Amino acid sequence: MKMLAAAGVLREDGVVRNTIQFSVANMDILQYIALRERNAFDFLCLYIEKTLKDSGLWDSFETFFDEQTNDALQSLKDTFAAFCIKYTPINTAVEASRIFTKVLNPLACKYHKKGTAKGKISPSMITYDKIIYNQTNWRDDAAGKDKNVARGDFVPVAQTDDEYQYRVSRAIKYLRQFNDKYNDGKSEILDRFSVGEKATHMHHIFPKHRYQEIAEYLENLIALTSGQHLQKAHPNGNTSAIDKDYQYTCLIAKTDSIRKNLMDNHGEPVIYDFADFMYVLDVGLETDYFGALPQYDFGAVLTGIEFNF
Question: Among 76, 96, 230, 303, which is disulfide-ready with 64 (CB 3.0 to 4.6 Å)?
Fold first, then answer.
């Protein structure tokens, strides 16, 4: 919370009954951060890097990323600790070391570099899965449970999909708000069903019940009118059925929406991610074609949809 206040996303309003009070200063950025973990990671990296540059520490981090040795790591740790002790309430190297990993490893992940693990240089590059809050719990290790298996599936307790439903609902709500504000509520597909109608339905291009792993991705959602959704995307309003021809139309239209948001932006927030879109297409079309495409090669994306659909 303090970090978000320092970044201008929240506003610190004082202390009431020993509790710091916060209010929202920038709702657009807060919604962007909250939308998905990757957005939060990107924001965190931007904030950390700017703070290091403003503090005169960035050169030391760049040196470590260039040299990638234990000696360079130790030198960076010493520099970081000395800075913290001199300019922050932290007054011991031990305290500084507790936050050092949280500063270094996100940046190492961003730049595909080694970071730190157990006080030494990591044996390999820091990957995204190593820094998100999804590490294997030691109790799971002892019991032999894979971190990809929900604990509710492993021990006899009730399964909860509340978080999953929340993430999907959050994505739907966010796309509706974005489309209302920056596309005047229009459908992403222009046809006879869109004339004079607002896009009030956020449709899963690859159906949620079949592709749960991509149900929360904005890249798998498209804003449609009720007619488009219930007459074309789902024939006769049967939401269990998919019109394959219209699904293809949705994919082409969504590709253009994402291209415009990333490449032809006119000041609206960038809400899509090219790599996430490639993941959605690989999962939905059951291929590995898209993950190998060059960044922002939308011509190849269209060709791939044509070839793999």
Answer: 76
Strands 201-204 and 114-117, bridge-based pairing: unpaired
The mean pLDDT of 3-21, rounded to a whole number, is: 92
Whether 159 and 166 have beta carbons less than 8 Å apart is answered as: no
Buried (b) or exposed (e) across 149-182, using 16+ Cβ within 10 A? eeeeeeeeeeeeeeeeeebbeebbebbbebbeee
**Nearest-CA neighbor of 241 among 209, 215, 214?**
209
Angle at 36 between CA 34 and CA 41, to 5 degrees: 90
Contact (CB, 8 A) for 31 and 79: no
pLDDT of residue 142: 41
* Position 160 confidence tier, pLDDT thresholds 50, 70, 90: low
> Rounded to whole angstroms, how far apart are CA atoms 56 and 50?
10
Question: Would you state the pLDDT for residue 59?
Answer: 97
Determine the Cα–Cα distance for residues 14 and 9; give it in Å rounded to an integer.
Answer: 16
Q: CA 171 to CA 262: how far, in whole Å?
A: 18
Report whether pLDDT(308) > 90.
yes
Is 271:178 a contact under the CB 8 Å cutoff? Answer: yes
C-alpha of 262 from chain center: 15
CA distance 117 to 115: 7
pLDDT tens digits, one per residue of 71-108: 999 999 999 999 999 999 998 999 999 999 999 999 99
Q: Are 187 and 199 in contact (CB under 8 A)?
A: yes
Name the pTM for this structure. 0.69
Lookup result for tokens 């500084």? 96
| Nearest residue to 108 via CA among 33, 48, 163 | 48
158 in helix, strand or coil? coil
